[in-house]
Design goal:
By secondary structure, this protein is mainly alpha-helical. The chain has one domain (about 40-225): Orthogonal Bundle (MetI-like fold). Helices cover about 85% and strands about 0% of the residues. The chain has helices at about 1-55, 60-70, 75-85, 95-120, 125-135, 140-170, 180-190, 195-225. The longest helix is centred in the N-terminal third of the chain and has 52 residues, at about 1-55. GO terms for molecular function: L-cystine transmembrane transporter activity.
């Protein structure tokens, strides 16, 4: 019996070792790459949406508000399915990676626009008035006075959004993208050890997120020193 237990333990360790590199490789190649690209593009979209939502012109604020409400009001998984499985019915077929980038970019853009909008609105109105009193127009006031203050406020929630996106990329497995979670599913189908392999991929996600949380803390402290906060 002891020999059987030792053989079973040895087999489990062998599975862990053999699965580790394919999962890590998929994590580095797809999970992190997808996260970085989607977050950067989403941040650009978020900035435009935030400016549109605080605009005095309804032709900008209303469509932006409708878009944000639509994205925030529907599940990310459904959005990915519409883009990857639904659009081909309209003659638009996308590569899984591109479909994932589009889906996560739109989602990040909507959610992060609220973070940026709230950060901009958190700057006291007196700052706008002070900028206007020295001859700055609204665009100059925003660029030189408001945004530098808003950025400091937005860094912690945006960093959390970035880390959250790392975990959300696991949903890309549902549209056949071979990122880290789908590799774990493939290994489960091969080895029939779901508990072991799903725990292993969870640990890898935990390691990625822990490193990013550490970087986030360093970034916040560095930015606080630069801004004198």
């Amino acid at each position: 019996m002891e020999m059987d237990q030792a053989a079973g333990t040895s087999r489990l360790w062998q599975i862990v070792i053999e699965s580790f590199w394919p999962m890590l490789q998929a994590g580095l190649k797809y999970t992190l790459t997808l996260t970085v690209i989607s977050f950067v593009l989403g941040l650009c979209l978020a900035f435009l949406l935030a400016l549109a939502r605080i605009s005095r012109y309804r032709v900008l604020s209303v469509p932006a508000s409708l878009f944000v409400g639509l994205i925030r009001g529907t599940p990310l998984l459904v959005q990915l399915f519409i883009i990857f499985y639904g659009l081909p019915r309209a003659g638009v077929t996308l590569d899984p990676f591109l479909a994932a980038v589009i889906g996560f970019t739109l989602n990040m853009g909507a959610y992060n626009s609220e973070i940026l909008r709230a950060s901009i609105l958190s700057v006291p109105d007196g700052q706008w008035e002070a900028a206007a009193s020295i001859g700055m127009n609204r665009r100059q006031s925003l660029r030189r006075i408001i945004l530098p203050q808003a950025v400091r406020v937005s860094i912690p929630p945006l960093s959390n959004s970035f880390v959250g996106l790392v975990k959300d990329t696991s949903l890309a497995a549902t549209i056949t993208l071979t990122e880290m979670f789908q590799v774990s599913q493939q290994k489960v189908a091969y080895y029939y050890e779901p508990l072991l392999l799903y725990v292993e991929v969870a640990v890898l996600y935990l390691v990625f997120c822990t490193i990013l949380y550490y970087i986030q803390g360093k970034l916040e402290r560095r930015f606080d020193r630069l801004t004198g906060a």
